[in-house]
Structure formats: C-alpha cells, structure tokens
C-alpha cells in the first residue's frame, strides 16, 4: 500500500491539465479547458478540465474526477497503478507500507500480462546490447539501418536469441507463469504442453500503450528464407487490440499537439527514421489497415493528418477505399507520394531532414484532389469509367461533415473532372439524402432503450427523485462551503460542515451515494479533520468521486463581464449563506417529515384497533407540529 505522505506529494505535484493534455487536445476557455471526449465519439467538445478544482468532467459519458480517476478510466489502471504512473511522471519516489514484491499469482489478470510484456521488452533489449549474438546480428542490423543508440534506447528495440527456449526458459525460471507467457503471445505451446519462443532470431520492436507501457511486439526476421514470414506480430490479447493502437504514438503525441499535424506512415522503420530526423509527429498503423479507432486516437490531438505513401501504385489504390473514413470523422487529410523506390525511411536517410520536409511541402495534396488525380489517370477517355470515377469522388466528398468544406471540394473537382458544378452538387445531395433516409430507417427500427442513461448506480431502495435531489444538495453545500466559518446572527465561531452534520444527525439519508458521503464526512469531523472537495475528488472509491465531481462540475460558466455587458444580476447563494444552508437543511427535513406523515396516514387507514389508532394519531399530530415549525421557517403554507 502506498503511504499517505507519498500520495499527498503526488497530488501536490500533479497538474491535471498537463496530465490530461497528454491524452486529449485541450483548449483554454475562460477559467477552464475543453476538448473532445476520449470516452465517446463526439464532434462538439463536452469534455471540461477545471485546473482550479483539479477535476475533469466529461458531459458525454458522465465520467469525471481527478487526474488519478482519468487514468483509471482511460487506461484501466488500478488506483495504485495510476498513482505510480503520476509518481514516475513527476519524479516522486514511491514509499509503500510493506516491501513491494512481485507475486505473479496474486496480480490481476491484465496487470500480469503487462508485467510479463515489460519483462520481455527488458530481456530483448538486454539481449541486443549485452550478448555477442545480439550485438553481431541485431545491433549490426539496426546500425546498418542508421538508427542511433539514443533511438534504440528510446524505443527499447531488442533482439530475440535464435534459440527455441532462450526467452521462455528464463521467464519461467524467474517465476513468470506459463499462462501469461502464452496469452501475451510471447511463447507458443507445443502439442506436449511445453512452450517455445515465438520471436526467436528476430529483431524486436516493442509496441507501447498510450501511457508508455509495453503491450505487444513486432518481430522482424533477418533471414532470406521465403518460407519464413518477414514480420511476426503479437496476437490480440486483453492488453493489446491492434485496431486501437498506433505504433509510436506514445513518443509522438506531444509533437502532434505542437505541430497540429500527424504524419501517418506504414512501418516501424518509417517511424523510427523520421522521428530520429527530428520530425517526431509521426505514427504507423502497425501493419494493419487504418481503423476508425486509430483515426479517433489521432483526432484527440489534431484535426490534420498527412499520409506518407511510398511509390507502390497498387498499394495506394487499395488503401484509398479505406481512407474515406478519415473524412467521415471530420479530419483534414493530405497525401504525399514518394518517388518509386523510396519510402519515408529511405527518403529521410538519403535526403536528410530538410530534404524530407521540402518534399512534403512541395508535394502534399488534399486527399480528395489526390484521389481524383489517381483515378482519372486510369480511365483515360472511357466515358463509362469516368462516370464511375465521378460518382466515387462525390461519395467521398459526401462523407465530409462540414458542408462549407464539402462545397469547396466540389468546386475543385468540377474543374479537375471538367463537369458542371451543379451536376456534382445534385449527385452530392442525392447521396446525402439516401444516407439520411437509411439512417432514419435504422433509427426507427432500433428498439427504444428501457431507461435513460444515468451517472450513478441505482440504489437498492428506490428513492424519490425530489428526495435524492435534496440529499445531493446537502452534499453539494458540504463540498463547496463546509470549510467556511459561520458568522450569522446567533451562530458564530463554527464551520458550516460540522454545523450541517450536527443539524442532520436525526435525518436518515436514503440515496446510497449521499448516505455513504455523509458517513465519511461525519467520521472525518469526529476525528478532528474538516474534509474539503479535494479530499473527496481524490478519494480512492469511485462512487464517492463520481458524486463529488457531478455536483461541483458545471458545463456552463458566466463570463466575468456578464453584469457589465448585460446589466443582469444573477442570484448568488453566497450573498445570504444563512438562508442557503438552513434552507437546504429544512427543505430536506420537511421532505422527510412529509414521508413520515404519509406513512402514518397509510397506517391509520389500515388499522381498526382503537388503541393503535390513538397511538398513531398522537404520532401524526406531533409530526404535524414539527412540519409546521419547519414550514414557518421556510415561509410556506401547509394545506390541510
């Protein structure tokens, strides 16, 4: 368990904007920062980060919390894992109450796969740099490709010895379980149940997660045997889904944000060479066709993608069909073609950084215009084929969600295709209307959801909506004003939080998150601690963080100049704190009393025993007096 002082140091050092900014492109808006949700597919930013409060709130998915919560939600870290990630980022030494040790059996399944992958990366990297075989075969290959020691170390490149069980035997010897060696794809099971190395005799390219942990590998053979596959990649596992991963993104994300552009290449070597040349905003799709998930990953950091193709015409034509989805996601796509015989790797090595940048600047084209150019070269003067090309181009333009951008492309294509712009617009409208009709039919045929989405788990006991809202209002006030000193007529020299808790000692909360929150608050007060919103934002239990963030986060904030511009006064609950606090307490009590009265009325209707009726009636009259006292304070009239 991580010690409390260590946790405090981590929390003090953590800049939530800086942390979340590594995963989401944030823009300043007033006192807060906004960006596109990393948890939902959206085009209008609803993801908000408040540096003052140290919280994020995603209004699309309902998720919210601290930097720790964000890492737990996005990367599926446990609470200690998220703390250790932040500690590593800010150079804080982690102290634990017991000596840390690797107990492979007790680690959870996902973490066990992470641990064994991290061990494998270290094993392959050391094999490359410290063994004779690794140096003479693996390291010499990387040096021939022009990779420097810094690049080799930064990307943790490695070498798997050309032996059947070099890695597997060592891993088993050090206590790593056969189950996780097999599931991660590092080892393969024989018919007799024993394991052997999957990557023997290959140079290794570790694939890193968004947060820098090794989750998979690509292994390249150095043999010329045509029967041996050139690349062997990790199979899908609990920690590795290739459609959700971009090679090099962990090292590129900062540069992508700064350059507001992402270079997309095909292979590992392309990423390494271009990155080494100082152009760090480069990623690869890891040998798989580009997926929507990968596009959305890039879209968190920039709306601009530049695809760098080698001179293989057949490969370019095949990939064009899949790139329309980039347009559909609302990103801007440019394409650069390299001369025959060159790919990004070879070009940057031959012509250097400046030559590479110049080639991109001189040859980049918008994807639609590039596609038009490529397809027109194939059809020649055949009018039927040309009509098909025109239709295909317009279908691509129809995927662009921005109507103004689409109309600009139509104008450009009209010139290139030598066809009237109105004819292209007519075809565009037909395609869009057909899609809208299809989407509408799918929507109506889809069964309606049983319940509206909600942020909190439903309690076991159903609580009336108004009642849960009143209970949540108490929590909100405790969070915002609990540590403020009371200075009211007749009440002074005490804090609002303990005062509210004392006043509500006779109230039973029924909304479970609110009940749990007040119990925690009461215990802390009894221990002489006055917990503030930061205490609950960083609380290790998710339901407490959820209720805290949902109550203090707001999607909208008034400009500081609101009154000066519009001369409209907005009620401020802080201007009369006595009315705000006591009003909330007595509204909740009135609600609870009303519920008790209703229960007594129901009991009176059910019983025919005179003695019982008298007892119930006395209780009812007593509660009516309590209700009247509360109502008198609130200034309301109770109708009999």
Please describe the topology of this protein.
Blueprint (H helix, E strand, L loop, with lengths): L3 H10 L2 H5 L6 E3 L2 E4 L11 E4 L4 E4 L5 E2 L1 H9 L3 H11 L19 H22 L1 H13 L4 H6 L3 E3 L5 H8 L4 H6 L3 E3 L5 E3 L4 E7 L5 E8 L9 E3 L15 H11 L2 E4 L2 H9 L5 E3 L7 H8 L4 E6 L3 H16 L3 E6 L6 H20 L1 E2 H13 L3 H16 L4 H15 L3 H25 L19 H17 L3 E4 L2 E5 H8 L8 H15 L6 H5 L4 H11 L9 H5 L10 H30 L3 H25 L6
Structural summary, described in words:
- By secondary structure, this protein is of the alpha+beta class.
- It is 53% helix and 12% strand.
- It has 4 domains: 86 residues, Zinc finger, CHC2-typedomain (DNA Primase, Chain A, Alpha-Beta Complex), CATH 3.90.580; 132 residues, DNA primase, catalytic core, N-terminal domain (DNA primase DNAg catalytic core, N-terminal domain); 189 residues, Dna Topoisomerase Vi A Subunit, Chain: A, domain 2, CATH 3.40.1360.10; 127 residues, no CATH class.
- It has a 5-stranded antiparallel beta sheet, with helices on both faces. The chain has a 5-stranded mixed beta sheet with strand order 13-12-14-15-16, with helices on both faces. A 4-stranded antiparallel beta sheet has the order 6-9-10-11, sandwiched between helices.
- Helix 16 runs antiparallel to helix 17, helix 16 crosses helix 18 and helix 25 runs antiparallel to helix 26.
């Amino acid at each position: 368990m991580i010690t409390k002082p260590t946790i405090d140091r981590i929390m003090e050092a953590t800049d939530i904007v800086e942390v979340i900014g590594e995963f989401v492109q944030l823009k300043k808006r007033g006192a807060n920062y906004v960006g596109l949700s990393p948890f939902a597919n959206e085009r209008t930013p609803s993801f908000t980060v408040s540096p003052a409060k140290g919280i994020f709130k995603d209004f699309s998915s309902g998720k919210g919390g601290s930097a720790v919560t964000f890492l737990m939600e996005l990367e599926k870290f446990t609470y200690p894992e998220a703390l250790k990630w932040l500690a590593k980022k800010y150079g804080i030494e982690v102290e634990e109450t017991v000596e840390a040790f690797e107990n492979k059996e007790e680690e959870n399944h996902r973490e066990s796969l992470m641990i064994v992958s991290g061990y494998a990366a270290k094993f392959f990297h050391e094999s490359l740099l410290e063994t004779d075989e690794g140096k003479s075969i693996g390291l010499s290959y990387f040096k021939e490709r022009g990779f420097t020691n810094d690049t080799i170390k930064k990307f943790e490149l490695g070498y798997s010895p050309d032996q059947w069980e070099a890695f597997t035997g060592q891993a088993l010897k050090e206590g790593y379980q056969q189950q996780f060696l097999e599931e991660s794809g590092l080892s393969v099971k024989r018919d007799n149940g024993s394991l052997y190395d999957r990557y023997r005799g290959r140079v290794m390219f570790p694939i890193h997660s968004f947060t820098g942990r090794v989750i998979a590998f690509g292994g390249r053979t150095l043999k010329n045997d045509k029967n041996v596959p050139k690349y062997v990649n990790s199979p899908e596992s609990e920690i590795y889904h290739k459609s959700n991963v971009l090679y090099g993104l962990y090292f590129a994300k900062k540069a992508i944000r700064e350059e507001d552009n992402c270079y997309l290449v095909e292979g590992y070597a392309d990423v390494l060479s271009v990155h080494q040349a100082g152009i760090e905003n480069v990623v690869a799709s890891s040998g798989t066709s580009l997926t929507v998930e990968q596009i959305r990953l890039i879209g968190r950091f920039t709306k601009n993608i530049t695809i760098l193709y080698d001179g293989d015409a057949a490969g370019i034509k095949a990939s064009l069909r899949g790139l329309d989805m980039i347009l559909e996601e609302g990103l801007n796509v440019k394409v650069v073609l390299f001369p025959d015989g060159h790919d990004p790797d070879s070009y940057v090595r031959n012509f250097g950084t400046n030559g590479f940048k110049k080639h991109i600047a001189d040859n980049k084209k918008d994807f639609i215009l590039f596609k038009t150019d490529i397809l027109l070269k194939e059809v020649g003067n055949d009018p039927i084929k040309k009509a098909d090309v025109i239709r295909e181009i317009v279908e691509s333009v129809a995927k662009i969600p921005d109507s103004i951008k689409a109309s600009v492309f139509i104008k450009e294509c009209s010139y290139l295709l030598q066809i009237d712009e109105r004819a292209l617009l007519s075809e565009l409208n037909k395609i869009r209307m057909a899609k809208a009709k299809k989407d509408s039919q799918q929507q109506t045929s889809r069964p309606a959801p049983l319940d509206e989405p909600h942020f909190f788990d439903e309690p076991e006991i159903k609580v009336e909506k108004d009642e849960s809202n009143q209970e949540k209002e108490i929590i909100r006030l405790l969070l915002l004003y609990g540590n403020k000193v009371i200075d009211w007529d007749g009440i002074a020299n005490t804090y609002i939080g303990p005062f509210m808790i004392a006043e509500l000692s006779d109230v039973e909360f029924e909304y479970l998150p609110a009940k749990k929150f007040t119990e925690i608050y009461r215990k802390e007060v009894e221990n002489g601690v006055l917990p503030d919103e930061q205490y609950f934002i960083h609380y290790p239990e998710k339901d407490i963080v959820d209720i805290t963030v949902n109550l203090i986060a707001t999607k909208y904030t008034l400009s500081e100049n609101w009154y000066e511009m519009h001369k409209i006064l907005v009620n401020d609950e802080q201007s009369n704190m006595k009315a705000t606090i006591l009003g909330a307490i007595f509204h909740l009590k009135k609600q609870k009393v009303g519920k008790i009265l209703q229960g007594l009325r129901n009991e009176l209707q059910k019983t025919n025993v005179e003695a019982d009726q008298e007892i119930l009636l006395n209780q009812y009259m007593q509660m009516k007096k309590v209700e009247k006292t509360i109502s008198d304070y609130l200034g309301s009239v109770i109708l009999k």
